[in-house]
Queue: 3 jobs
Job 1
Amino acid sequence: MPEATTIAFKHCTILHPETGSLEAGKCIVVENGRISAIADDSAAPEKAIDAKGLTVMPGMIDCHVHVIASDMDLGRNALLPNVLASFRSIPILRRMIERGFTTVRDAGGADYSLAQATETGLITGPRIFPSGRALSQTGGHGDFRARNDIIEPCACSQKVGAIARVVDGVDNVRRAVREEIQKGATQIKIMASGGVASPNDPIHFLGYSEDEIIAIVEEASNAGTYVMAHAYTPQAIQRAIKCGVRTIEHGNLLDEATARIMVEHGAFLVPTTVTYDALFNDGPRFGFPPALMPKIEAVRSAGIRALSIAHEAGVEMAFGSDLLGKTHDQQANEFKIRADILGNLEAIRSATTVAAKVLQREQELGVVKEGAYADLLFIDGNPLDDISVLLNQGSKLKAIMKNGEWVKNELENQPAQDSATRA
């Protein structure tokens, strides 16, 4: 058994997103990957690490990523050899955690094995809540075949680079849910409307019949989890919510009536506004299919308006980025978009307390409290006053801790790997 390690920090100014308050003069004690105690500085041990002048906040959570999407053309990404697709996800994951995202929910593509790789420290990256492969009807948002491709009789082979699988019919979707959960999915993703990055499905298309969605929700519920749905239009959002879907991804065309329905059903919205800017500005030079560019403008400006509509209605919104290929480095820019509309605190909450609710881990993630995971960011600056300290590839993050272990440590006079006292 490895010897237990205790690390203590003194002179901490803790940002609590749940209250929006700053608590100064605190000592944080980390033991066995968890926060074991928070006390006044007077209780700090002699060898405590000095965090004076820094803001300490919980590690951030991105609730909509595709870590295997190393190519902006998702159809081409799905054709990558499996080993290459896996290897290309490694720098994507490393850079996510270097930006302060210690947890991510993958919305299609990442599986149990990739989650285990980051959990065990085999590769450096955030904690992953994988969806496995998202479920799409034939011709839906997850079907990237050209119109002249032969329709395969089954999805018998596993392509690591594919974010989705094509499955139709009530009995078949039930089995697909069971298979994804058996393979380690922590939630199920469905394509409930057309989308931007797929070739044959206009955005107004509806994905799956209501009977199919109800069956998917039932199977997920039977396994103790929930369904997240890609959906843009009010009609797609409403029917998904009424069929029991718990989180709506994107939701760019949300209207006031639909927002009220989301509140009534306790559903979450995961906007991903940054990806439309990235696709619009950088898609052509980074390989996004030119034929799909006209789809982007239809949802880009509407997504900004949807943020205001959801906020005014009281819809809880979690942080999402949904970036592809070489635009992954724009992940934290979502904060700037949200802060300009909702304010800094709400932007921070979306990536901490609200995101933790989505993951059903509100006592363990997105908070700095006793018993929570020791996912901690030590920031040169206060994001309540200046959201830019969370941008720029984590340049203002002096130290990053996940599960009580250092990912980055630039705290003064402290060794990078072990400044701990031994319990």
Note: The longest strand covers residues 5-16.
Job 2
Amino acid sequence: MISDQVIWASLPVPAFIIDPEDRISDVNSSGEGFLNASRKSVVGHPVWDQIAVDAPLEEAFLRARQQGTPLFVNDVDVGSGNRAPLQCALQIAPLLGHPGSMIMIVSPRELASRMTRGNTVKSAAQSAIGMAEMLAHEIKNPLAGITGAAQLLSMNIGPQDLELTDLIVAESRRIVKLLEQVEQFGNLSQPDFKPVNIHDVLDRARRSALLGFGADMTIIEDYDPSLPLAYGDPDQLLQVVLNLLKNASEAAGPKGGTIRLHTYFEHSFRLRRSDGSGHSLPLQIEIIDDGPGLPENIRSDIFDPFVSGKENGTGLGLALVSKIVSDHDGWITAESVPGQTIFRLSLRRAPREVAGQDKE
């Protein structure tokens, strides 16, 4: 016979036992991860001090307790003092054999939607690589001939026509630069995995941004100092963060704005593939800006190649970001409303044996 404690600890979703005085009397391991707090630190504390629900829930909760009936609440934001809110469904019911006690199960819907959206990211990026390489190869050769012909013509024409040949040369060179970006997208090498202090990567990106494209921005650090090492390629992860910081800075315009770099640990976020295999992605990095937000017509396709909300944008920047994150077996998602855009990276933790070797 499997014990109740084993079943309780094995539940894959956050679960809480609430006593008759509305205090937490127990929490499972998924609940600890959801709150980003230990069982010892939350047991005995008022539940609504530990769990913030963006809905008037107390009266309905009291009524369910008095009547001995279950309560279901869908699509509410649930968070705590130690983690950002997630959209969740709540299932609350009386605990049999314990009058006045209730069990509450939290089902994070936002995690599931991130997984669904993320499934398309890697395949979309990879499907564009072959086309990108083909286009770059086929177009660069005739462009070189056009540029050379225009330069030869410029030697034998009058000043009034020189402007036209100069335009041909300038536009040809602009297209070559675009094609070089395409080739970079197609030729990105596989990550050189090693333990990475993600805060070092964020700090390098922050300093680089403030010295260049983000000089008019205020960049706030909101880090979890206890975050363990990530497992990835530090240079490629730096490229990801720089790209996202640049997008946020360009969206803010010359008046500038604020970007918040937020890190936290999310024990309950786990990637599961269609074949049943999977791994945990507990390291969360959020890049949050207060700009105008992503254009509504492209929000769902923002990571697809050649989709851009910027005038004369190539649409390759975020596609490259998604490819790098996918190569790291991670996920990236975007949430955007006017005044707040959040890009969230979810990454693997460095294996303990590898992290230990790195410290030696």
Note: Residues 118 and 278 are 14 Å apart (CA to CA).
Job 3
Amino acid sequence: MALAAGVLTVADPALAQPSPGASRSDGPGRRADDGHHPGGDGQGQDGHGKAGGQDRRGNRHRAVPVKGPVLPAGDAGDSRVPTGSGLRTALGATVQDKSLGTLNYAVADAATGEFLFGANENTPATPASTTKLATAVAALAVLPAGHRIATTVVQGAPGEITLVGGGDPTLTALPVDQVRVGGAPVDRESAPASLADLARRTAAALKAAGTTDVKLSYDTSLYSGPVLHKEHDAMNIAAVTALMVDEGRVDPRSTDEGPARVFDPAGQAADAFANLLKAEGVTVRKKGGQAAAPAGATELARVESPEIGRLVERMLTTSDNQLAEAVARQVALAAKQPAGFDGAAAAVTAELAKLGVPTAGVVLTDGSGLASANQIPPVTLVKLLSAAASPQHPELRPVITGLPVAGFTGTLAGRFGAKSGAGEAAGIVRAKTGSLSNVNTLAGTVVDADGRVLAFALMTRTGAAPEAARAAVDRIVAKIAACGC
């Protein structure tokens, strides 16, 4: 398998040589997801939020001390597996840092899933957003690679139509050239479905039938149970409904980490659709509110989300809570479970067990990791990552490609900076972050000094400042990367 992070240009050739070893902070009582702005020393981004920065020689976009691709080509026999005693020596005092508080961790060989070293690796801990790894693996395992989430419009009685939510929170009311994900424009494969396209197709079908005014209802019946997450704060996550646009943001162009969310995402979507129909020459003479579509109703139009692999990559790179809950519900629907918090959690857990991932001690109550009640042992996380990296499971590969790259992308853009003590691991670590009050987690893959791909999971509970705890975690990963042991 060959999955590289990409090729980076270098301002100073001397900096391109291999290295020698070659969510935001929470206030009191407040929970948030992963930090999306630069933390710690801030070296991961420049003043415009772009990856890079100035090095000590004044170069913009400092080069990465790359020792090899994030997942190099070759099989398990191409490089030496580190030993447990070697890892113990390499990690040394880094795992004793007081900023870590209580630390549970595990390191495994990504090629085989073999556990190599750790402490309290079988003891469940609060995973925070590393929960999304479980959601991602389950979704890719149970859903076809080409699976897309559809939003449709169906014909009811004459002159009546229903907008039917299929569970796609990325459906957008914006023009595609204005859509940004993690601050970057979308490409053809990752572009979300367009509500304007749906209105245009619906209007065309109605006009073809001689109709230019309608009664509009909307259907959210695909989901069941509570719509509000137990940790709902109308910023990190909106109400979880089967119909919404732009993830329920008040301002769909907002770049805030936790943007303000509307109270009624489904109603917002229906209103936006009515306005778009009007722009296409169809008048909504009456809004019928929320109602299930008639059984056997004729479909007038549809739009579809990107494929599930692209949704998973977006979810992991940006740690998207809203999308994670939607993806978990797609797992529930595929497993014929109720598409709510409980059904989704049960379906994800069951799918992991089918894959042979150890689920002893696993407790899931959501798909995003916002829930403080979730529990996952570190050994489960490294087994998830090893399965995703394995040639035996190519369908799981978007889990690896969707992980943020240390110092450069997603929720790791502002970490592994020069002042963190972990800068030499920038660019060669892919990992999912997790952050709740007093909890910081990191789980991903790293290439060690011998070119071996290792999976790791580090889970802390500490009263230390989040920036200090994250830097301490990053230094452990840097030691693993430098290990030729």
Note: DSSP finds ten helices and twelve strands in the chain.
